[in-house]
Design a protein that fits this description.
two-stranded antiparallel sheet; alpha+beta; Protein-disulfide isomerase; 10 helices; Glutaredoxin; oxidoreductase activity; isomerase activity; isomerase
């Protein structure tokens, strides 16, 4: 099995755009994806002056990747209300979901859709809990694990940053294949919206 290191952030728009490619990769038994969350945005309210930039970037992402940005999300970004983005709570949810048996790419997908399509407030633990319950996870177990998840999350992010330095990774999303001890960056952007060509390209790397 060939390893693929995936450097990402749940709140990264381009990572959301790449989610269909990650799904193809995750469903190929020849590969093992190792997820490296980057902690891109510690919990903070986004300044209204920056929100138009976000919406413009999202339009570019949607055009290139065919990813869908929902009306609820766009309305929330454009509103006069507070718009909080939090990579840390969503990363904790990503890790706990896996611990409770949800496949990594599926956990990431549901987080991304909840944010980028439904405009949910994923900086709030009660919202994340509802998300977990909607996936069939036990609320009591979820809350117990979330309560103790912060230290592990910080360790994961620190480890990701160290690997990013070693592998000369400068941004998200980045895919690096590890085969026979050799590391090679996977060029994924030419395959946005082209899942069959993407799968054929991945097959050529085996």
């Amino acid at each position: 099995m060939v390893k693929v290191h995936y450097f990402f952030d749940p709140m990264c728009g381009w990572c959301y755009g790449a989610s269909s490619l990650i799904e193809v990769l995750a469903n190929m038994s020849e590969f093992e994806i190792i997820y490296h969350p980057g902690g891109m945005i510690p919990k903070r309210a986004i300044d209204p002056s920056f929100r138009q930039h976000i919406l413009q970037a999202d339009e570019q992402i949607a055009s290139m990747t065919k990813a869908h940005f929902g009306d609820a999300y766009k309305a929330r970004v454009a509103s006069k209300g507070e718009f909080v983005v939090d990579s840390y709570t969503t990363t904790r949810a990503f890790l706990v979901g896996q611990e409770m048996g949800v496949a990594a790419h599926k956990m990431l997908e549901i987080i991304q859709k909840s944010h980028y399509q439904e405009g949910q407030h994923l900086d709030q633990l009660d919202t994340v809990e509802k998300l977990a319950v909607s996936m069939g996870l036990d609320a009591i177990t979820w809350n117990e694990k979330i309560a103790g998840s912060e230290a592990k999350m910080m360790d994961q992010i620190q480890e990701s940053h160290q690997l990013m330095s070693q592998m000369k990774v400068s941004g998200y999303p980045t895919l690096i294949i590890e085969k026979d001890g050799v590391l090679k960056t996977v060029s994924h952007s030419p395959y946005y919206g082209k899942p069959n060509k993407w799968k054929a390209y991945l097959t050529s790397l085996i």
